[in-house]
Amino acid sequence: MKPVKALVITAPGINCDTELSQAFEAAGAQPESILLSRLMRKPGLVDQFDLIGLPGGFSYGDDIAAGRIMASLMRREMYPAISAAIARGTPMICPCNGFQIAVQAGLLPGPSGDPNSASPMSSNLNAPDHSQIGVWPNSAATPTVALATNIGERFHDVWTRVEIPSKTKCIWTRGLSVVQNCDMLPSAHGEGRFMTDIKTLETLEKRGQIALRYVANENFNGSMNAVAGICDPSGLVFGLMPHPERFTRWTQHPWWTRLSTDERSADTLGLSIFKNAVAYVSDYASSQL
After folding, report:
1. Which residue segments constitute the domains of the chain, with CATH numbers given?
2. Is 170 one of the catalytic residues?
């Protein structure tokens, strides 16, 4: 079987591309970082990859607003190539600044469609199901969600406990189980408070597009419904404020020396997220043979 290739889109100010590449590699994929400026000249390069990563950082200095400049460039120059890749089943992960960019670039929460028309999720959590990808519009949609300034107007650099909704469609997180002390991910942002209107939030909840939440009392940025991450209707595109790529080894855990051998016997939550996506791509490739 051919190797799973992962595209890591980078740009001035992005500073988590190395960690994202290492996470893809640890999960069994072959990553390649390509500058956005090169991709804008050759959008067709996207077609060579099975996975896409939009890393965290402070793209273009986060001037104007977090992710605004890079999102504007992607809306104008990359939207057709990226949306076409998603439409043919390419998973995409967007941590932190990547989430801020994806929302403003019209990639999340994805095509609206009819929230009542989705087919039931496959009982095999690793089985590819492209029936819910939907039709991506020819031009980027107006954002319907936002990542606002944290409550308290402070930058937070913290580890927080998270939980995965049992009915999520997100192929990156669904089927994963986490236990206490191992259910943590690092976050580092000043603009990560998930906001939207009540109707949109209800639709996202109903469709299973909430992919990750902060646990009770750890919603430090004030996000609505404690939302830490969402996905598009197909579950392929995953945007989240925490950094799973920064927790792929147990030695990165803030108190890893106090964890038992049993607790450290499984993969970290961060690595499990990336392995889920690589397995999804591999399963889909096998189904096409």
Report:
1. 5-287 (3.40.50.880)
2. no
